[in-house]
Amino acid sequence: MDIWKWVNEAEAEARRLGNTRLAELIDRLPTVVTEDAHTQADALFPEALALARQAKSPWLEVFFRHWNLQSRIFHRSEPGEWLSESISLLEFAHREETRECPQSVCVTQDVAGCYGRADGPGWASERKAVVLETLSRIDATWPCFTCLSTEYFLGLMDEERFEEALAWLEKQEAALVAAGQGHKRKYLLGERADVLLELGRLPEALAAAEACEESTPSDHTRMEARILQARVLARMGRTSEALEVLPALSAVRATPAHYGNWADALVQLMKAGAIGNDANLERTLLELAGRLASTGAIRGAVRIEEQRAEAALKRGQPQSALHACARLEALVPRLRKPLGADETLRRLRTRAEALTSERPPELTESAAALLDQAEKGPEDVLRLLDAARTRWPGERATLVRAQAKALEQLGRGEEAEVALRSLLDADAHPTPDVVRELGMNLLERRRFTELHALVDSVLNASGDTPLRVEAYRLRARAALESGEKAAAKAPLRAMLELDPELRGTTLTLAALERDTGERERALARLDDAVARWTEPGPHDWDRMLVATLLGRWDVVRASASRFGFKLKGDSGPVEEEWEACRLRYTEPDGTFTEVWARRAGPVTARVVSIAMPDSAQHVGDTVAFDATPLNEGPAEGEEEHSWLYPVVEVLRPGRYSVFALDGVGPGDEAIEKMYETLAACGARLSVRTSDTYQLMTPEGEEVPGFFALLAVPPEADLGEVEAGLRRCAEGLPHPVLWPTLLEKLGREQEAEAQRAVAEEWEISL
Predict the structure, then answer these.
(1) How far apart are CA 255 and CA 73, in angstroms?
(2) Under DSSP, is residue 606 helix (H, G, I), strand (E, B) or coil?
(3) 578 alpha carbon, distance to own chain's centre
(4) Distance between CA 319 and CA 406 in Å, rounded?
(5) Cα separation, 548 vs 554, whole angstroms
(6) What is the pLDDT of residue 85?
(7) What are the residue ranges in the chain where pLDDT is below 70?
(8) Contact 317, 379 (CB under 8 A)
(9) What is the dihedral of CA 188, 193, 199, 201, to 10 degrees?
(10) Over pLDDT 70: what percentage of the chain?
């Protein structure tokens, strides 16, 4: 059964009724979920749900709530917060008005997945039972057949019944083949790799994981497959390959569903000696376990804490092992069934306590040296503290700062805060170092209320200039971290009143004034900076940017001359042809778009790359950018390097309309004719055809495909452009289609005719 048919029909109906936003959300929400774009999913879901209810469509409500749970449970592992919603949706999906909705079947997976993420082994039998009941109501033609089959498989895996799990997969794959759905076996490749790994059949597991990565269009599944490959390769001793394929922590951090397998890959690499068993590993495992515990994914948190304790014992750090044990003591009672976790905890604690009697490392030559050591060897510093307090009783402040720094290096920020507050409470006149370290601790943990209270207490109690500068700096940073640019200006100005020579503060304040509508004030500040610091530098680049935004080309030219730039002309706008560069836009939804551009001057560029029609479009924009690049310089031996700059403002928007052309390759001569004809109409053609794009004629002959983007500036005549396309397509043996352009011109009948041809040729337009 095609459970997406009704979704496509609902989307088309929404468009027909003029509810284009609802139609867009029907299409967009599943995409951002499968791409792990969780911030976008959270932004879209409330609007989608409200529009579904406004349209009085219970089926769409089931659809949107299901995809929200897919994000929350299957990607972000948040069963604690979303269990009640999954049960509520299950009830809603079985009401009279929703029972026949094909998506209602998927809601069973949401509930089973929620219990599985909370404590998979503890709920295994119940999950399997509810999945089997639902599977009995569908057949292998349903897309959710593979999803539900996976949930039953996971129940078997949680029970460590690996042979049965593999047999189950093979049974479900056979059912797919029998139903004519054999191509869907690819959706079970990740599960196959997982169970083969557990069975020790490593070459087969690796092949399945590689096939999984190659066959999926989903970013989430591709990431899962790469992590699986790393786990297998590490066990095979092919550690360099494992390190190459394993995604970085930054890539998985937003998706806790990856944490368990990613941590396993990391631990296996540590056991193989490919990465260090050190404080970095300790901090990383603690972060992952803490996040899972906070979302209610208790079994996953327990497993990672056990791995953390084992690693700490292996490197001879009993304090870290005991810290893991303390966290396990809080987690194990939250499991539905301990299933041996309590016994594991007892064994770990016994081993850690036995290790504490071993002689700690040698003390450093001074308390200050211990503070320096806290960054490189934080666990050793914590083991030395008792002896250090005996050796240097008068160095309490230095030792507490060393303790706090070591704790922060290990990811234990709350404990570091307690240590630093003990200093603050004991000293009526704290040093700027203590205030800064406590403030940064609070800032990194986004404890803004406590941070502002700290700043207020310092400013109310002290007239010391360095201390007040530090307090204002923290207030400014808190405002910036909260996205409150305007609020950061007052503390920065207060800092400069106390110390006008603060260069970084000067540039930061000028940038904020620039971005919050005080551009003349920003330019005056930068003019003063140029006069104060006579050597050309960052203040000149910032000055050229603000002057460009104000149209003060005389100032742009003046600062450019300080660097030795030879600009054309003596006055007026700078419009030149410099090197290619890349630009990064920050879109309204907070996502980034990177484009190719040609620099037109020191801080201006014109966008040349054309984006897909359904993406953010910037072709033809003239922009002002911040000349501080976002990327590193060229690597040694790198011949083709381009700088990446952040866009500050669009000076002149391109406002191009972009349309897709799709069909059968017309041949080089015809494509060249298209380029010339469309350019004469003022439009730009960008051919994007790949060698692998092939189509089948209705008679079954394979022919090369053709895909291109057509960018039309606002001043061009769309009708003339379309007429040019028709002239180019006349006489071609196979179709080239442009229905969206016809729709833009209001020629719906011709557009429908082209879409009918596209459907016949299985062209996605």
Answers:
(1) 10
(2) strand
(3) 33
(4) 12
(5) 10
(6) 93
(7) 1-3, 428
(8) yes
(9) 130
(10) 99
